[in-house]
Amino acid sequence: MSNFRSLTMTSLRVRSSALALLMGLSVSASLLPAAQAATPAQVLAGLSAAAGRPAAADRGQQFFTTRHGREWSCSSCHGELPVKASKHASTGKSIAPLAPAFNADRFTDEAKVEKWFRRNCNDVVGRECTPAEKADVLAWLLTLKQ
Predict the structure, then answer these.
(1) What's the pLDDT at 33?
(2) In this structure, are 28 and 86 located in the same domain?
(3) Is residue 127 part of a domain?
(4) What is the full per-residue pLDDT of the chain (146 aa) written as tens digits?
(5) What is the distance between the alpha carbons of residues 51 and 62, in angstroms, rounded to a whole number?
(6) C-alpha distances in angstroms, 109 versus 61, 67, 104, 113, 130?
(7) Domain-located, residue 146
(8) Range 84-111 burial, b when 16+ CB lie within 10 A, else e
(9) Which residue in 122, 113, 124, 145 sits closest to 45, CA to CA?
(10) Are 28 and 45 in a shared domain?
């Protein structure tokens, strides 16, 4: 009986320690600063730096509207001028305007920027886009004004 009591007490201490550790981690995580929103200009600066060259809006427009050996171009879903809502070419799902001047949420979350470039470049180009290609497209999108 004393072995059972000893084992139960040890088990309770381990559980208690684990719970305290988890609660501590949870509190620590809540004290971390939230990810800061970026501006489209900041995202562009980062992409240009990664590319090692300044972005060019004319190259971005050409990339956006050209097919790259696949079925679609960027404009297939976003429109020739991505300044209004459009629909996905295959699914018909609604797509909010892509140009930041027409949709204030665009290019303000770097994780989302990378996620969507990765997905869409795979559809359009069959690979991830280079930082230079991303920078060029964003540079062109930033020229589109209301």
Answers:
(1) 43
(2) no
(3) yes
(4) 555 555 555 554 545 554 444 444 444 343 444 456 799 999 999 999 999 999 999 999 999 999 999 999 999 999 999 999 999 988 999 999 999 999 999 999 999 999 999 999 999 999 999 999 999 999 999 999 99
(5) 18
(6) 22, 27, 11, 6, 18
(7) no
(8) eebeebeeeeebebbbbebbeebbbbbe
(9) 113
(10) no
Q: 28 and 44 in one domain?
A: no
Domain that holds residue 20: 1-32
What pLDDT sits at residue 4? Answer: 53
Q: Quote the number of domains for the chain.
A: 2
Around 91, how many Cα atoms within 13 Å sit in the side-chain half-sphere?
4
Residues 81, 145: Cα–Cα separation, whole Å:
11
Can you give the CATH number for the domain in which 88 is found? 1.10.760.10
